[in-house]
Amino acid sequence: MLFKMKNSEINRLIDQIVGMHNNKNWAGFDLYGILKSITVETANMKLPEFNHTIHQIAQHLVTDLVVIKRLQGIDHKIPIEENWIPADEINFKWTDTVNSIKENKNELIRELQKLSDEDLDKPILKDFSSIYENLHGYIQHSCYHFGQIALMKKFIDNLRK
């Protein structure tokens, strides 16, 4: 995605977020391709040495909507029971979880397009850290968990060989 020089930092952040979700990221993996290839059975498989299922991790990523809400001026907090839903209590369809990840990315980009580079140094909410810090936290958090999902998918594929 090419952008004009105006708001170049916002545009770089948007590029990172878009790239993180598809095969234009520095790690070279296609998140949506990976998510699409995961069956309901695979998403909910409990693996030895892993604390969570793929579905739990993906559902945890949906909680990143907190950044979107805060950009909208809402002091949104995720209840602890929604942050990490126990595997046997997830009542979301796998496809709905994947779609929520995609929808959150699109909504976040729409919110960022309303900002200017000068806004990045402002607190996301009163007495909170800057919008810039929150966006980088979102990106780092997402990359970490996307990597976990990719690793777990590869582990499961190797088990089935």
Q: Would you kindly provide a written description of the structure presented here, covering whatever features stand out?
A:
The chain has helices at 8-21, 31-37, 40-43, 54-62, 65-71, 80-83, 94-112, 131-159. The protein is mainly α. The chain has a single domain, classed as Four Helix Bundle (Hemerythrin (Met), subunit A) (Up-down Bundle), CATH 1.20.120. The radius of gyration is 17 Å and the shape is globular. It starts with 7 loop residues before the first helix and ends with a helix. The model has no long low-confidence stretch (mean pLDDT 90).
User: What best-fitting shape do the alpha-carbon axes yield?
Assistant: globular
Q: How many domains?
A: 1
Question: Helix coverage percent of residues?
Answer: 55-70%
CATH superfamily, by name, is dinb family like domain
Distance between the termini: 38 Å
Order of helices and strands: HHHHHHHH
Low-confidence stretches: none
Report the CATH topology name: Four Helix Bundle (Hemerythrin (Met), subunit A)
Question: Which structural class should the secondary elements be placed in?
Answer: mainly alpha
**Biggest β-sheet description:** none
Number of strands: 0
What is the architecture at the second tier of CATH?
Up-down Bundle
- Bin the strand percentage: under 5%
Number of helices: 8
Mean pLDDT: 90
Task: From the alpha carbons, calculate the radius of gyration and give it in angstroms.
Answer: 17 Å
Regarding CATH, which class? Answer: Mainly Alpha
